[in-house]
Amino acid sequence: MGAFKPIEGHCQCGAVRYRVSEPADKVYHCHCSMCRRCHGTMFATYAVMPRKGFTILSGADNLSVFSSSATTHRKFCKTCGCQICIDVDTKPELIWYTPGTADGHPGHAKDRESHIYVESMTEWYDIHAKLPEHIEETTSPRRA
Ligand SMILES: [Zn+2]
Ligand SMILES: [Zn+2]
User: Fold this and answer.
1) How far apart are CA 53 and CA 22, in angstroms?
2) What is the DSSP letter of 139?
3) For the domain that residue 66 is a member of, what is the CATH number?
4) Which pLDDT tens digit goes with each residue over 48-66?
5) Which residue range is the domain that position 42 belongs to?
6) Has residue 1 been placed in a domain?
């Protein structure tokens, strides 16, 4: 991959906007029970990168913080509930942000992307399943 082109992201309602100016070192699909419950999803995806490359452009005062452990502080939009980033006290030089809210590629190398905390994965989720792909809901055509 060539030089990283900065990307921007925002929450669903648009109150919180951010810019990422450095590529992610790692991308994690985290199956831990805290991520599952904070996101309400089967797993949560985070890009990990140097904090100095992450800037909140607007809406910093619209972020709420929930500490899912003594050292893990999850920031989400007060209005729409969208998870934006995590501060981890033990690694203050890094930030974890949600690349699903960004408008571009986080810039990580594919071999730096992985599933973590897989022992906490819900028992019915099949990480290897090749499921049908539809363009919208299941009444829409399958993707070719
Ligand atoms: Zn929002
Ligand atoms: Zn997690």
Assistant:
1) 5
2) T
3) 2.170.150.70
4) 999 999 999 999 999 999 9
5) 7-120
6) no
